[in-house]
Amino acid sequence: MRSARVPDPRVCSIEQAMQVLGAKWSLLAIRELTFGQHRFDEIVHGTGAPRDILAERLRQLEEAGLVGRVLYSERPKRYEYYLTPTGGELFGILHAIRDWGDTAVRDDPENVVAFTHHCGHQLRTAVVCRACGEELRPDEVTSERDLHRSDVTGI
Known about the structure:
Distance between the termini: 28 Å
Number of helices: 7
CATH superfamily: Winged helix-like DNA-binding domain superfamily/Winged helix DNA-binding domain
Number of domains: 1
Strand content: 5-15%
CATH architecture: Orthogonal Bundle
CATH topology: Arc Repressor Mutant, subunit A
Strand order of the largest sheet: 1-2
Structural class: mainly alpha
Helix content: 40-55%
Order of helices and strands: HHHHEEHHH
Largest sheet: 2 strands, antiparallel
Shape: globular
Radius of gyration: 19 Å
């Protein structure tokens, strides 16, 4: 039996971020840009995305202000893509997802690619509070408000 849809869901920046990043291939395109792949064919090769869908995702990411592009060939018109400063802020988030995937999802640890930080250690990510530097733990974080859509829209 299906449950009824919640008529008044929580207002959340995660939901809004997923509207930008949640489409299939979007995060993988951003991953390729962080790995230094800037030309469309390189991004296609690195992601395995269908060309038409990848073109649409890059356009959406550009509209959202995460990706920019620069013309490098007039005939035919071809572009190099790059992360904007806003898109670059996703670097740590991508590595946190990768780190989690390496430890919680991958079933072939022999094929996990290790990333090394400039300090010489294997890169392991942690989300920390910018104010105190402590690692975030779910039981130590509270919200000041619990808004639902009706609180915002007046419905």
